[in-house]
Amino acid sequence: MMILKRMKTAVKLFSEDFKDRSNHKDASLINIGFVADKQLSELKVRKKVSEQDVLIVRKETKEFLVTALTKLLEKCPLKYTLVRNLAWLDPQKIKEKPSLCEKQLRLCLQIISSAGKVRENKCDTILNQFRDFAVICKTSEEASEWPTGAHSRLDTFFHAQLAKEHAFKDLWEIVQKVLLLSHGQASVERGFSVNKNITVTNMKERTLIAQRVIVDHLHHVGGVTNVGMTKELLQSAGCARQRYHAYLYEENKKREHTQQTKKRQVLQDEVDQMKMKRSKLQTNINALLTSADELAIEAEASDKISVLAKSNALRKAAKDKE
């Protein structure tokens, strides 16, 4: 109890060393739960466990609790200064303690601007807009009724108060960014599990998307029995066969176009290959003729029959290639 009395703020909570044994209760006083306590008592009566075994269980329970608490504190968002100062989003606090909320907003802006998420020259404008909004909150019925009023969600409350007001444009922008901090990717990861449950062999992308849309809608409305049988839905279901045939027709056209494109590509590749071979052949012929001319000039200058024979052989080879 003494350690709990010392933890009056989040900062003190995170500064406390929970592994310090001076802060721990005696292992024999650890509450291991009603069922576990009962089973240990029964085992002791039947002499299947000793007092030392019971003490070991309680010690291990204490170690588990300390480890779990330490891990929770490591993951706890309250260790971040930004999160600890988000109380300025509370409409009740804005109404009752506007100065404190403004101070907390200033700290948040310092952190957000240092991260490059908002320009520093906008911070004063945001603070001025917040002061004006705090004045409105003092007389606002929505702020007084929150969170039991029509806008019980914080995002819907601020959207109703700020989104359509140009005078609070910059304040609304920072509110959106701050509210997005708590959004993780758990919903996306849950979607992977849904995909795994609804996929079958050889399922195409369009089918998977359609089934996911259906599953998401069923979750949204709360079950199959809550799906509204509207006129549009019935008409869409009635035209399903026509859309299917239209889809097959389009797929056939795409397939034919792809095949024709492939054939043209094959012919074009053959033409390009022939042109390349012809170019290489012409290059070889030119090289042979050039060498033959050089040998002929050399034979004329040296009166060597062997050189002239080589020249004639090269000319013959060039002629054969033609």
From TrEMBL:
Protein name: Uncharacterized protein
Taxonomic path: Eukaryota, Metazoa, Chordata, Craniata, Vertebrata
